[in-house]
Structure formats: C-alpha cells, structure tokens
Amino acid sequence: MSIIRSVSAFVAGAAFSLGVCLSSGALAADLPVKAPPVVGASVPLDVHGYVDLTFANTRVTPGGLMIYPTRGYLTQIDVGLSLDIYKNPTGFINGISVFGGVWNEMWSSPFIGTGNWQELDWWLGFSVGFAQHWKFSASHLQFKFPGGATIYNYVYSLGFDDSYLGLPIAFNPYVNLFHSASGPSTVVLGDNGNTYRVELGIRPTVSLQKSTGIPLSLTFPTWVTVGPTTYWNRGTPATNLCGPTTSSPCATSSFGLFSTGIQARYSLDALIPKRLGSWYVKAGAQYYYMSNDALLGAQVVTGAAASFPSAHRSIVVASGGLGFSF
Length: 326
Hints:
Elements: H1 2-30, E1 47-56, E2 74-87, E3 93-107, E4 117-130, E5 134-144, E6 150-160, E7 174-182, E8 195-202, E9 205-207, H2 209-212, E10 216-219, E11 222-226, H3 229-232, E12 255-267, E13 278-290, H4 293-302, E14 314-325
Antiparallel strand pairs: 1-2, 1-14, 2-3, 3-4, 4-5, 5-6, 6-7, 7-8, 8-11, 9-10, 10-12, 11-12, 12-13, 13-14
C-alpha cells in the first residue's frame, strides 16, 4: 500500500512539475528575449584620434607660399583628437563633433642664427554632418613662429561625400574659406590680417582593397586657390620684388595657384593588431603651379629663391611617413 501511495505521489508530483514547466515556457515565449552579449564584439568609439609623422623635401602652404629652399628635409608631427557628441543617422543632422590638434615642423638645414624648430600650429573647432553626405566644419587656427610672431585664422569648410554612389572613384568635392584675422601676412606680401582666400578642390580616392586585396588607397588631391588681389599683394613699395631685377612692382591677380598630386597609403593591419590602432605607411608627390607673381616675389623674402628670375613657379613636394589612428 505504501508503495502504491509512493508511486501515486511521484506521478502527481511529476505531472505538477511538468505543468509548471509548460506554463512557464508559455510565459517565457511571450516575454522579450535578450540575446547574450557577443564575446569580443567591438563597440563603436565616440573618441577618435591620430598621430602622423611626415618627412618632406620642402613645403608649400595652401596659400602658395614656398617657405624653404630645396636643401635638407622637413620633419612634421601632426596629432589630433575628436569627440562625437551627437549621432542620428536618420535625421537631417547626422552628427556633431568637436576636435582639436597640434602640428609642429622642424628643418634639418636651418638658416644661420636660427634653430631647427620652424613653426607650431594648433586648432580647435567643430563639425556637423547633415543630409547624410554633407559636412560643415569651422575652426580657430593659430600659426606660431620662433621669435613670438603669431597669425590668427579661422577656417570654414563644406564637403560632400559621394562614395555612396558606388562609383570606382569617389571625388569628394569641397570648398574652404580661409580667413586670416590678424597678424603678419600668411603669404608675406599680402594684407596683414582681415583678408581671406578660397580653396576649391576635390580629393578623388581609389581603394585597391576590394579589387586586388592589396590594402592600398590612392588619393589625388587637386585644388585651385582664389581670393582678393590684396591677399597676395598689398601693393606697397615693400612688395616691389618682381621683374628682371627683383625690384619692380609685382603684378596683381585674384588667382593664386593650382595644385594636384598623388598620395598613397598602405595599411599595416595585417602586421599590427587593431587593438593598437590602425597603422599605415604613406608616400606621395604634390605638384604646385604658382600663377600669382607675388608668390614668386615672396620666395625672395623666405629665402626659397635668391631673386625673382630664379623663383620657382613649378614646385614638386615629395613626402613620406607613417602614423596611426583610432
């Protein structure tokens, strides 16, 4: 009798337990299920930065000033950081970021009485991505030189990312407005502050990763620079550095320069783990054609040329280096 009761109790308990399990399963099916976290999944960063080291044979500024004669080499160190403070991929405003950075330049063959350090630039600004493919940025930019001279500038940029079209080449057109607010002329012979220039350009980019498996990207930066004639030539006797004898007034023009080139970047992701950043090596050549005679006269002041007849109207800047970003 006790055995029958025990069996009956066991069957009843099993039936009750099964009922509880079935009812619990039905309830669980009605509840939202949270997937377990994926081990090793990457989390998108809101903080981005980079460190870039460049070696070059000389330098031409975006405004067209050739600063150094072609001797020795330049070392340029560029460090930047940005912070994403707003993201909305489906809205009209897609993202807002703030950024800043510092750039330093050293020259291996400085003029007598000067040091290797030549210039420090620093900047702070913000950018706004909108309408899916557009970006506007504004920044405060300062140039600092040995001896204490400082140039205060503001840079405004509007760019369009056309890579979404799926074309073999993304052209990435842009326009930059460079406002020199105060300080010495950024091109030596132009107005000292309260002037501007406009850069109209494209940055055609081709990635060979998908088509060949080679982690190499090629960019072809191309632009023209225009502005008021006084940006390059303020028209005083001090600007009479042109002509056969380097003593004639420089011709005035609203066109500054034309530039095009090729810049190659090879990813080192196969050699350096991504947790240490995205490393790369780079090399390139940029061609400049100086249309404005005042830019040639300015080379006499910077020491890049001994006289106006020997000034460089066509210039090629060769460069190479390495860096990483995260």
